[in-house]
Amino acid sequence: MAGETTTRDETTSELRTTPPRRYAVWARRVGTGVLLLIVVLAGLDLLGPRTGETSAAAGGYELRAEFPQVTRAGQPAPLRITVEALAGFGDTVQLRLCDELFHDLDFQNWYPNPAAETSQPPWVIYEFDPPPTGDVLEISLDARVAPGQFGAIDDCGLSVLVDDQPVVGASFTVWRMP
Question: What's this model's pTM, rounded to 2 decimal places?
Fold first, then answer.
């Protein structure tokens, strides 16, 4: 018949007419709160890459390190180490680092390059030539976190060795976010 309309709407016929249950309302509120928390933390720059610092002094040496405290796969992860010898350096400067740190890094280069390196698990020992003048040696590692690395927390130790024995040491923690 012409002009006849149906009262049934095909797009809404399957929708329920009862209000949502309490747990569904609370689940949506919690989900919205979590998303809002992530946006606020990101807006305050609390989720991005960050560097940390640690230092120690003993045995006539001062050791300082700037390390990648929070990082992600593919992000730069520079490590800067400063060794100051109050009485001057000998023929070489030995640094001992945990080998676990290097499992997740793609190396670009050391600046300056070590004169020698060896492994004594769980450590990697690098020997550097002392600076030509002065009593401060600055070392930088240009590295990135290897692609495809999942989140993890790595604790690492760093020491200055004299006659193959640690004289001063510091530790730091690197958090790789997924």
Answer: 0.77
